[in-house]
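#random but structural
TW: two for the price of one
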Amino acid sequence: MSLPTRPLGSSGFHITTVGFGSWAIGGGGWAFGWGPQDDAESIATMRHAIELGVNWIDTAAVYGLGHSEEVVGKLLRELPASERPLVFTKCGLTWDANNPMQAAKRILKPETIRRECEASLRRLGVERIDLYQFHWPDESGTPVEDSWGSMVKLIEEGKVRAAGVSNFTVELLERCEAIRHVDSLQPLFSMVSRAAAEKLLPWCKSNNTGVICYSPMQSGILTDGFTKERVAKMASDDWRRRGPEFQEPALSRNLALRDALRPIATRHNVSVSSVAIAWTHAWPGLTGAIVGARTPAQVDGWIQAAALQLTQDDLAEIAAAIARAQSGSGPAQPPNTVASRGGSAS
């Protein structure tokens, strides 16, 4: 199966507009886990996504405290080299193995970046990481220039093909760009969490930096079957139980927005999830969306987003629904569609 692709900035990669996000397959038992997860089911789920045409997987060292990368590595060993997806991973979150429920520390010291890279290479079972990303800005006092310089060295040594960042500000992006081009940015971006559209997407578009957003379905809220009761039934170690968008009054507002997507989904004969993901694709500068799944059936629920193109009327209807629901914050309609309709974007 062939899915549409877009160039990831100037990296040389052409990636499908949806990629497989492996946060949840890290399993439970750590500070930001999604509850228990069966490894065999995880591998079957990723394999199904690849069979449907998805050509990249996004993971991180911290997901499951190394476990997600290990599971991705098992999948890669099972696949012929010609069928292997691109693998993107992240560093910069240092955890305490003796206290897994404690939040990891945001550290981007040159020596820890190198140590984490070597560990990720081992867990993934690869000689080179396709895209290596800083997970969060450093909080240890390390200048970002020192951190990014360490990333450049990893590229020069052949351990990393392309370099990106996640959750960075424009100011940090510019400081990195002055040293070496930033191949990609990974921001939170969804109909609920829209702040990235204000400055980050325009900066990336003008600098030819690719953008792969995470949580386009707002960690499950913008899906067909999500309910308030579902939150109450989540595993005790599922981080979403503590997430602000899963608490009232935000939860009711978000579900009202989700319900407003149903007529659009019906018109296109797709799922609500697909509409939520395709909305991110409509924004200039956005390359692809990272979409998680814990079962093959969940992949089937969003795979149509890869080729779905929302109309200007769809986008205007969604912007109106965002305003009615008072869900989240940030621009509500892509600027190119606003200009053509003479409307406003917030």
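TW: number two ↓
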Amino acid sequence: MPIAIEAVEEAFRQLGSGHAENLPRRRLHSAKGMLHLMAASLPSCGYFGYKTYTVFPGQVRFTVCLHSAENGDLLALIEAGRLGQIRTGAASAVATRWMARVDTKVVGIIGAGWQARSQAEAVCQVRPVNQVLVYSRSPERLAQFCKETQERLGIVCHAAKSAEEVAEAADILVTITNSTSPVFKGERLKPGTHINAAGSNFLIKRELDETCIRRCRSIVVDSKEQARLECGEFLAPLEKGRLTWDQIRELSEVVTARSLPRTDPKDITLFKSLGVALEDVAVAAKVYQLAREQKVGKMMEYGGGSER
């Protein structure tokens, strides 16, 4: 996770300085499932690539293809389920590093699924957290999450009785669900909270209500272009004129210090994470480099017999 956090932050720094490019996700539909495509370029680091994944009933498959930015060679073909989990957590950590108060102690998480694990791990890397409070609608999943998180991170992890309990207590609040309706009431947030909303990336889904959006002094996304296509939380406030795209900043602007997300300890700040290809390519490059150094993976012939 520390490697991924630094890789993702540097990628957004390159994007903010004009030395990287990100293409928003596109989705193709069949009668039974979907194919998702997303691409990014980090030429200053020597790489570009793309991620594809298919979603069908009972199975999701992720793949990243990493290419050389020098000559176009295909360098690596990477199964990217775990990679995607880590990079999603890393993006939240980067946003937390730049947007959350430095004295935060309590992380609240709504959702206890697969992605929630990397969210907890990542945020605890960048702030002096001493307690994790979690809520899930599944008691069994919630109990297992608390047990695993406490053992893995060495930080007290408690189960909450409701999402509102989490929202009221959290200094850093993570929402990581697939909900189509808000998972807590925005008026429950205490001043100074930082939110990482990382669960939804479809216009029909939203984890945050209009009150929450209205109370946020600063709203940051990983990609405004992708947010226009995928961010359900912004639809109603935009249509009602209570939010404009000019009020929304990108994470690349924050890490290059062109936008200051917090000016007062009482500010409520929001990072809306949709998940972009830039993060996948940045972390895939690190995976490739480590694989070569540690001599793991399978060498394959490709493109006229050259080994990759």
